[in-house]
């Protein structure tokens, strides 16, 4: 999330590669699960901390536009996690991520 700060990162061109490892890119679906309460996760916090949210995606993608980008997930990830990783890879491809690739580890 540091890469999606509202202020542009002064040295973002120094970022040459970004590896997303089985990430959760949209926290909103977690609001209806058991995990929301112990995290004290409300809708505002979920949006503010989700890379795919409208408030974050442009800044994040701009900060990493020239970096080699990999989204990596395991072969046996749960369906929700697989869907989020596939969607994040699609977002990064649409926003012009350089050398974007979705990898599945076996």
Give the termini separation: 27 Å
Radius of gyration, in Å, reads 14 Å
How would you spell out the order of helices and strands? EHHHEHE
Strand content bin: 15-25%
Helix and strand content put the structural class at alpha/beta
Number of domains: 1
Instruction: Sum up the overall morphology in one term.
Output: globular
Poorly predicted tracts of residues = none
Largest sheet: 3 strands, parallel
Strand tally is 3
Describe the structure.
- The structure is a single chain.
- The model has no long low-confidence stretch (mean pLDDT 82).
- With 106 residues, this protein is α/β, with parallel strands linked by helices.
- It has a 3-stranded parallel β-sheet with strand order 1-2-3, covered by helices on one side.
- The chain has helices at residues 36-39, 43-48, 57-63, 79-94; strands at residues 17-21, 68-74, 100-105.
- It is globular.
- Helices cover 31% and strands 17% of the residues.
- The chain has one domain (14-105).
- The protein has 4 helices and 3 strands; from the N terminus they run βαααβαβ.
- Helix 4 links the parallel strand 2 (68-74) and strand 3.
